[in-house]
Structure formats: structure tokens, C-alpha cells
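INTERNAL AUDIT FORM
Audit reference: QA-55
Scope: verify that the stored structure record matches its stored sequence.
Auditor: D.O.
Record contents follow.
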Amino acid sequence: MKKKLTYAMYLALMIGLVVLGACSDDDDDDGGGGTTPVVPDAWEGTWLSAGADVAPILVSLFAYDSVRVTFNDDNTVVLESHPAGGAWGTLNGVYTVTESANSEIDAIAINYTAFEQEGIIQVWAANPDSLYLEAVQTVPDIGAVPLTPEDGFGADPTLLHFNIQKYRKIN
């Protein structure tokens, strides 16, 4: 009788471990290999900034009338800029977004072949979705200090709102 009770307890323990093990990854994203679809990050896609949405600093320094950026799910980025009356220019790079636990504003670092930027990014669900980006060049160092999610947009006392790039999702 004692042996049967011991076997029953072991069997119950094993069943419990199997059940708990099977449940432990129900909430994990499996990279699209299972039945749970992969949810893209809000910033992924192609975004266009044109006219009054182009950051005033980009208009005054480079005469940009349009800027298009594509954030891919593999963390590559393509930046296309268009000066008034000129041709589109393209920069390729990689990016990293560090999501904030306390804010809807996240930190972003972008490494293009020619320079690097850091700053903040925020996406709003709308029709079309909107993305705000405020980043400053950090490499080569020009003395600019990137904002953090805690700082918020327009918090730089020198740049104020002049460096906020506003985009609308186009794809």
C-alpha cells in the first residue's frame, strides 16, 4: 500500500510539472512560428514628413521640403530627404528603440553610415498614424545632448520645438 501511495504521489508530481511547463510559455511571442501572430512595433513602416511637418531646423539648414523614413522589423532604417527643387538623397542605417516603462515616449538610437543620432520617438494611433521624432547628432560629436523620454519633446532649451520631426504613416 505504501508503494502504491508513493507511486501515486510521483505520478501526480510529474503530471503537475508537465502541466506547469506547458503553460509557462503561453504568453511568449514565438516569432510567428505558432498560432499567435507577431505584432509589429508601432514605429515599423514608412513615414512621410512634408510641408509644415518638417522640423524647422531641417528647413533652415538643409532646405528640406520632405523627409521619408522607413523603420524595418530587422532594425534597419532608410532615411530619404528631399531639398526644395532638388533630388531625393538616401541614407541607410540601423536603429534601436528602448521602450520606456513609464511613458509613451521611447528612446531611439540611429546609426547611419555617415553619423549617429540619439533622441526620442512617439507613435500615435490615428488615421493616418503619426510619429514624432526628436533626435540630435551624437557622432561625430557636435555637443548636442539627446533628450530622454523623461525630458519629453521640445525640452531642449536651445532647440525648443525646432527639432521635432512630425511624420504620417504612408505604408
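Auditor finding: record pair retrieved intact. The first strand starts at residue 45 and ends at 50.
Action required: none
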